[in-house]
Amino acid sequence: MTDQQTLAKLRSILEQPLFQRVITVLIIINAVVLGLETSPEFMTRYGVMIHEIDTVILFIFVLEIAARVIVYGKKFWRDPWSVFDFAVVAIALIPATGPLAVLRTLRVLRVLRLLTLAPSMRKVVGALLSALPGLASIGVVLIILYYVAAVIATGLFSTDMPTEFGNLGRTFFTLFQVMTLESWASQIARPAMEHSPMAWLFFVIFILGTTFTMLNLFIGIIVDAVEHYTEQEVLDARDSIAAGQDQLREELGEELESISRQISRLQELAQQLKKE
């Protein structure tokens, strides 16, 4: 078997749905194993078995990544998802002792490989990444509103509620609690209203401006990004199909020209034979 045949066989194995399902199951098992490692009691009883399972799964992951590097070559490194898979598996190879041992806690990132295997999850992540510029703009607006509200709240409530609004830092934290709607009425708004009856107006405006309005803007941008990403995928698929059709036409044209030349040669040979 030639090298090309070996690579073709290896590629067919990597791209088989059954192989992808096996890798998915191993990722899930590995996630469970990593969770069990956090239990001292469980590790006392079954620690050796857990480490052996983790080692075997890691070995399979390393073989898979190595096979993909061999089969796809430079194409592997141009794919961000493939680079992510490589990095996640490489982290698990860091020694358990030494200055880099703390990075071994990042082994749990192997669970994120599920995102690279499921097309629907990849679509969601891709859409979220494409939405980052729009989300960043909204984030800047939110920070500005947050800062303005913090300055106003510190000026209004710092004397009566120094624990919550004594300085700008405390006010930021308190307003974050209000923005997340975590006991904002009972712990923040009502005590403030005991000193300033109209304090409720500030908190209502702040919640409407930050929580509801900004949240809807965030959702709108993400939904728009998902739609745009899906449309772009459809366009890319059409372009790919069109390019494949053009290439097929060119190949068929070359084949027809080759056949036509062969027919012409046969006709010439036939005429020469008749003359003889």
Write the layout of secondary structure elements.
Layout (H helix, E strand, L loop, with lengths): L2 H12 L2 H20 L3 H33 L1 H5 L1 H12 L21 H5 L1 H12 L1 H26 L4 H4 L2 H12 L4 H12 L3 H77 L1
Helix pairs in contact: 1-3, 2-3, 3-5, 7-12, 8-10, 8-12
The low-confidence parts are: none
Sheet with most strands: none
Query: Any idea what the shape is?
Result: elongated
Tell me, what is the CATH class of the largest domain? Mainly Alpha
Treating each run of at least 4 consecutive H or I residues as one helix, how many helices?
Answer: 12
Tell me the count of domains. Answer: 2
Which architecture of the largest domain per CATH?
A: Orthogonal Bundle
Report helical residue fraction. over 70%
Summed over residues and divided by their number, the pLDDT gives a mean of 82
Cα-atom radius of gyration = 31 Å
Distance between the termini: 48 Å
Reading the helices and strands in chain order gives HHHHHHHHHHHH
Strand percentage: under 5%
Count of extended strands: 0
Main attributes?
276 residues, mainly alpha, Four Helix Bundle (Hemerythrin (Met), subunit A), Helix Hairpins, 12 helices, elongated
Walk me through this protein's architecture:
The chain has 276 residues and is an all-alpha fold. It folds into two domains: 115 residues, Voltage-gated potassium channels. Chain C (Four Helix Bundle (Hemerythrin (Met), subunit A), Up-down Bundle), CATH 1.20.120.350; 158 residues, Orthogonal Bundle (Helix Hairpins). Helix content is 83%, strand content 0%. It contains twelve helices and no strands. The radius of gyration is 31 Å and the shape is elongated. The two termini are 48 Å apart. The mean pLDDT is 82. Keywords: Coiled coil, Membrane, Transmembrane, Transmembrane helix. One of its GO terms (molecular function) is voltage-gated sodium channel activity.
